[in-house]
Amino acid sequence: MFAPLVAAEPDPAATGEPVAVQALALQCFLKLCCSPDFQMLLNQIRGKAVVFTGHSLGGAVAALTALHYLCISSSSSPPAPPVLCVTFGSPLLGNEALSRAILREHWGGNFCHVVSQHDVVPRLLFCSPDAVPAHIIVGMQLQQWPAWTRHTGAVSTVTAHMADTDKDVLRQLIQTHVGAVAVEQKLAASETTGGSPYRPFGTYVLCSPEGAACVDNPTAAVQMLYATFASQSSAGAESPEAAHSCYGELVLKMPHHLLLKRWLRVDDDMPATPNYDDGVSLALEASGIDVMVRAMEASTARHWLKTSKRAGRRPSLNCARLATQLGRVTPCRAQIEWYKALFDAEMGYYDAFKQRRSPRKYTKVNLNRIKLGQFWDRVLSMLDAGQLPHDFHRRAKWVNASRFYQLLVEPLDIADYHRHGHHLTSGSYMTHGRERRYELFDRWWHEKGCTGAGGGITSSMSAASASSRRRSKYAGLTQDPCFWARVEEAREQTESARRERDVAELAMKLEELQEFERYSRELVATKEVSVDVLAPQSSYTLWVEDWNQLKLRAQG
């Protein structure tokens, strides 16, 4: 159901925790999934732009539903249209591992959490379960953290029928624990201090009667949730019930605040400040922090708003630097293209590299292959760490560049794999030897909505057959990056079939070879292969000769 999120955490032992979510929200979501009406609605919205929304516990369920929809859409064809989830006064949903997984899948921009300045519900789960008195605590059950599971109830009853003294206690507890989390720079420290494991994800819209401020950095979101809540006084704060049910009014006022021209209140004797700092001050006032009265909270919030702004700019700057670095490694790619053209007419660059023809040229090309692989691995590491724009993997420049690199260089990786005999010791290249970057590049290309080979023999044949546009000449690069791995498997299968004496086994192997023959002929007929595939001494040409001989023997 949430396989991409679970798979996105590469080594749970290294992080110390698996992906976990709030149990009550998960129970409600699972109950919803069992409804025939929900499944019918899910089928109706496939392929359409969708907005999921909910209030309080319903917001957490809406977020789980959006995650479920994103997970099932990530492997669909064509790719799913935009998905947006907007929650109002929703409690935190999951732990740091969930936040990292969403970041790694580049789904953070799909979630927007609207939080009122005085609402305790979005901040409640920052409290340690043992810190809240038993007569105040409500049923927030967290999967993987049994301390919560002894309580039952609903999030919407957090503050219902609560004595005024208890409300003050709860407000003070939340302020203390959110502040403690805000101070922690290493989120894992909560495990040793007994703190809450919950962490935010997505964009937070912090609302007040004065307007709203947006924060999309998880650490800055924690800081701002604390600063905006700490800026209220017990005497002046609205009741928890009113704060949790005010979102309809906030939404109605939001267009007015967007159109309202705001003026910054300053003292006459204060020195002039840069426009950027004035903008931060206006954002603080919009989030409910009075910069003139709450100096300490304003100072902390100002710092984290600036940090969030810098963090928001940094991915774009990193992307620009990578574009420069891509230009610097272009000569490596050009050297491999020159090497390919050198052997196109004789045996193709795949077989030339596999046999180490012209050792000096081989050495140079191999170094270029390694340099290019290191560059793209560095790109993916930055992407995994959230250091690049969330839509980086959808930008045409990078999708096309990665695809060209893959089509040019992966055949050399396949040749290197087979030259060293790894297919005999470790298994098939496609299942045991393929680098993660190539699988991701396949996914990028698939999400772009491009057709072509590479997704398997059957899907490639159907895509090629359905294509109304035919090439007038052979492709510059074979459009199936794993074509040579399939050729190697076909050659091994042909040799095995030649020695096979069992009739049933022979029939099965011949059927598989016939399927590859149909696939490869379709690629050649549609000119989806490069001319080196048809070179006189290429592995493919040699396989065709062996296969024709085997067919004659089988018919005889």
From TrEMBL:
Main location: cytoplasm
Keyword Cytoplasm in annotation: yes
Keyword annotations of the record: Cytoplasm, Nucleus, Plant defense
Family matches, as InterPro entries: AB_hydrolase_fold (IPR029058), EDS1_EP (IPR041266), Fungal_lipase-type (IPR002921)
One GO cellular component term: nucleus
A Gene Ontology BP annotation from the UniProt entry: defense response
Gene3D superfamilies: alpha/beta hydrolase
Highest taxon of the lineage: Eukaryota
Pfam families assigned to the protein according to its UniProt record, in alphabetical order: EDS1_EP, Lipase_3
Residues of the EDS1 EP domain: 334-550
Domain Fungal lipase-type: from-to ranges: 36-127
Transmembrane segments: none
Cellular localization per UniProt: Cytoplasm; Nucleus
Protein name, per record: Lipase-like PAD4
Organism for this UniProt entry: Zea mays
Chain's gene name: LOC100272668
